[in-house]
Amino acid sequence: MTRNNKNSSTRKIINWILVSIAIILVCLIASKVYKIYRDNKLSESVLSRELGTVQINDVESSINELAGDSFILVSYVKNKEVKALESSIKKTILKNNLQNNFLYFDATELMLEDNYLDIINKKFSLDNKNSIKALPAILYYKDGKFVKTLSSSDKRMIKNDDFLKLLDSYEIIRN
What pTM value is reported for the model? Predict the structure, then answer.
């Protein structure tokens, strides 16, 4: 083998190694960018842009201002299942023109507290029978008066079908 052939095959090997390293780096960077994008999408509620939001300090005044059939979704972000639930509820809200009857309460920061459900139940003046057991939950009010809690449990998250049944049972919409 001549010296040029050795140099040529050595260059080919080096080029192949450099191209492989470049491809691996591009894949790693693309993976990181996608993870950041996905995390950012999960950190914002699907409903926060469509509905009015309630802050923890404004709960009482917001409830007092509720008129007619009104709902408050108590939820959190950074969870794929919750995001899917909110997306399906959003479709129901838009289909039935309930945007003005719905408020969104983001409990993500409250969930850092050990007793966050107690804090939420106390803030919304929910007794033990009507308390929120797990999030997400939907609170139903009629003319500013509490009527019903639609709460998740440790075993089962509420579904859009549960919300549709609530709407139908109180004759807010007809399925």
Answer: 0.77
